[in-house]
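Title: Prediction job returns without error message
Component: structure pipeline
Severity: low
Priority: P3
Assignee: unassigned

Description:
Job completed but the reporter wants confirmation the result is attached to the right record. Sequence as submitted:
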Amino acid sequence: MPAIKDETWQSLVLDCELPVLVEFWAPWCGPCRMIHPIIDELSKQYAGKLKCYKVNTDESPTIATRYGIRSIPTVMIFKSGEKKDAVIGAVPKSTLTTCIERFL
């Protein structure tokens, strides 16, 4: 799953025509490692309908601060440049699927 940095945030997330799922994570976060494979599956499942990216909060603290990320993993859905929903914690795939389906 591609990583997003401060300089690519606008073009890849806010200007994207498709809904975008962004996982905020950090290398030292155990639950983040549990959710990575789920996000990878969702990325394949919704190919062409949804873009999936990840943001390392240690490397891009500006983005995390802008969206008030206090705990990771946090998965956010963006559509038309706006934050639409957020799911905090390592949740089951079904929870994320339900969230995604609302914005497709």
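Comment from assignee: result matches the submitted record. The longest strand covers residues 82-88.
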